[in-house]
Amino acid sequence: MILLEVVIGDLEFKHPVFLALFLALALAYWGYIRFSGKRLPLFRLSSLSGLEAGPTWRTRIRSTLPWIRLLGLSALILALARPRQTLREERIKAEGIDILMVMDLSSSMLAQDFKPDRLEVSKRVAAAFVDRRPYDRLGLVVFSGEAFAQCPLTTDHAVMKMFLSGLQCGTLEDGTAIGMGLATAVNRIKDSPSKSKVIILLTDGVNNSGYIKPATAAEIAKQFNIRVYTIGVGTIGDALTPVSRRSDGQYIFGLARVEIDEELMRQIARMTGGKYFRATSEEGLEKIYREIDGLEKTEIEVTTLKRYSEAFRTFALAGLLLLLLELVLRQTVVRTIAD
Question: What pLDDT score does 55 carry?
Fold first, then answer.
């Protein structure tokens, strides 16, 4: 036996064949309306002067009785079709990817070739990337003249985004220690049980500090099968960049040439099986993160389970109450000679 199911909104009808009774109900009511006037009793009256008043409240109620019966029968038909509310459950078995984001916090990240500056745009775009990776563990490493693991690998993406939003330049010794930042990230992710381990390294400068060379850190990443995507942030040419700092900590801005060691970035990506990107605008950076998102797909197995909340009792009770109401009204307050 083939069981058909009909779904309307959140309601699913297990026995939709009974819905065909609506056709019979419609035909019956068409016949009732078509021929009801012909079976009314006739009375001969010598004068109609006493019947000129308008309809009374009884006649108005009586005119609704067929519709009350119609609603009652309709509710019973729906009950026979066995409506039930579908409650879906999804069990997701995901083989997630571990992704560590490594972000440059050197003072040059305050350059204003991005609006309001490179750091704020990088934080905003990175947070959007986090939102697109719901089944992955993500972490955050920051660096300037030194490196620091800001957020360990976690599935709590709200915490990850909280750390991202709080990033500020000047919290670490100034400089650009790309090798230190990459090595710190490798150390944090190398022992992960995940089959796929990824580092996204974002910088806007040239390695000029730290005691670990970027090529050495990339070689270590390669040994642990960690892919590194590198991103260079900054326009082509000159940009309004911090050039010095006052005694009160305020930065002094001036035009300076944007220098990114793109060859080094390509070398790191090539050694680890990743890819190098250059972002010269916010739109470009968004496109890069979307491309990385597409390259690093998470394998997800979704099993959908269905639970039901039976709703036929509500329709059956409503139908019976409506038919009972119609019967009581017809046999009491609006009873006529014809009845």
Answer: 63
